[in-house]
Amino acid sequence: MIRVEALTKTYPGVEAVRDISFTVPAGEIFGFVGPNGAGKTTTMKVLATLLRPSSGGAWVDGVDVLQAPHLVRGKIGYMPDFFGVYDRLTVAEYLSFYANCYRVPRRRWAKLVADLLELINLPEKRDAQVDSLSRGMKQRLCLARALVHDPLVLILDEPASGLDPRARIEMRELLRELKSMGKTILISSHILPELAELCTSFGILDRGRMVASGPLEAIAGSGGILPRIRVRLGSDPNHAAYVVRQFPGVRDATLDDEGMEVTYEGGEPEAGMILAGLMSAGVRVTGFAPVEDNLEETFMRVTGAVPPA
Amino acid sequence: MRAVVANLLWNPIVEKELRSRMRTWRAPCTITLFLFALGAAGYVALLAAVAFSSATGGGYSGAAGPGIFGTLTVCELILILFIAPALTAGAISGERDRQTLDLLLVTPVRPVSIVLGKLIASLAFVVLLILLSVPLFSFVFLFGGVALDQLLSAVLIGLVTALVLGSFGLLASTLSRGSIGATVGTYIATFLFLILPVVIPVFGNAVQGPNANYFEPGMPAYQLADPGVAAGSLIAAVFGVGHNTNGCNTDSNGVTTCTRYVNFGFSGGGSIGVAVPGRVVNGKVISPTFSQPQNETYTLSSDRVVTDGDKIIGGPFRGLRVWEAFVIVDTLIAAVALTAATLLLGRGGFRKPKRRRG
Question: A244 near A253, Cβ under 8 Å?
């Protein structure tokens, strides 16, 4: 549904994006992760027909973004990272204006506005001035605005930035609902946990390059990311660490207050061998579980960068 | 057929702009101030006409109507010069400031529709102002001396002035990143547009020396683009003031020959000499001289026009009224500015996006 190939965008003196390629199949939710300035917004603006790349290409639903931007515009709903609303318009007028821009027939506006406000949970604000809404409401309204023409693809640049926790949860619910509606979504964030459960696959960007992409497990299992096991101990930790370090596949074993964390090469069978080895060496194991890599940690490991708070 | 027409008329921008513009206090305030300023100017012109006629000891002179008409026309033009750029200068850059431009550019609304929509919405407000001023203008008919078509010409000059300045505003608005820059740029462009055509010849003379062609007959054709020239010629026609010309002839080769009445001589006995500035006849400068009033025949340069009142009698556009030429030239200028604005707006990534990371 979305295809980007060898996309490069340079500004004088700055290389915003370099040689980025990825595809998002229909119905998938692709999460763009990376620190500020990594090139997420630039890539999304190219897909939204707002920016011409220096080289490379992009396609939405098989249509070339560079050759036929006017056709692409009808297929995508775009929500930029910074957006404004018009003053002196009511919520209904605001949505109707964009419905008109997308050539939705006039007779369908009233129903459309009602449906969209229902979706974003703001039906009582129909006649409120857009300016008077809270930030979270404006952000949801902007998402509704991107949906007026029922697009196949949504390009959402940091839809939850600047929201308080409650508004963020509401936004997450909304995105989940869109997912269930079968939209293909490209979403970016530098606040990682909010993406982890929502997305089917990820692209990790750093300084204009795609550092890793694919489903979370695939990213976690490649590129120097090794599986880890958390071991709870009922006996001398130093002895346990000594024992475990003797195994050929084990790279590292660190001790902390809660026990030991073992980094190793391989998969489940190797983990079983480690457990068996520990037992036979007399180490009392009270807990033994693989560490579930969350997106944030993966991200930190892959980019070697500390994600912003 | 109906679908085609509906497609051509489809412009969501116009509807939205008109709606939100009339919701501010600025719109009624502008209208009130506009009418107040125009009414005050007309009242002063009326008082002046009354004072003049009583000072000269008789009823209303024939100049009362033209006087009020001229005052109102000039004042309306000046007000439009201030209002029209302000209406469009913020049109695109304001969307940029408000961060709504991208939201608009990702819709199927084409850049040309955005530019035209903004222009039409702004011009609609100017049309409203001009329509509201018609009752004031109608006072002129109480005194006579002004024909209906002359009044309509004044209205048209005002409209086309708003069109061309509005187009400048849109172009500046597209070029500029912020509204303040766009507004300043538009007012500078407006000022130059009004002043330059009139100043260039004078400036040229200053460079070339005192005997240069200040007195070359006619005026440079590019002055026809100046709304001030158009309004001035119309007012001159209403007052019945013509050029000191006795007509022009254009031969089959396109060479125009005119005759003018020269009255640079002196009266009063001939004992005191009056230095007469040099003037150009047939490309030669006639040095300061004393002459009896006489007819003088000269060949008109191809880039100059000769007018008689508001009629163009020689050079390009001959046969048209000055205001007709103004309407043609300035509509073309507006079209060029609007085309440029559309192309700039359509070029994605024209400007490096501001780093606005929070």
Answer: yes
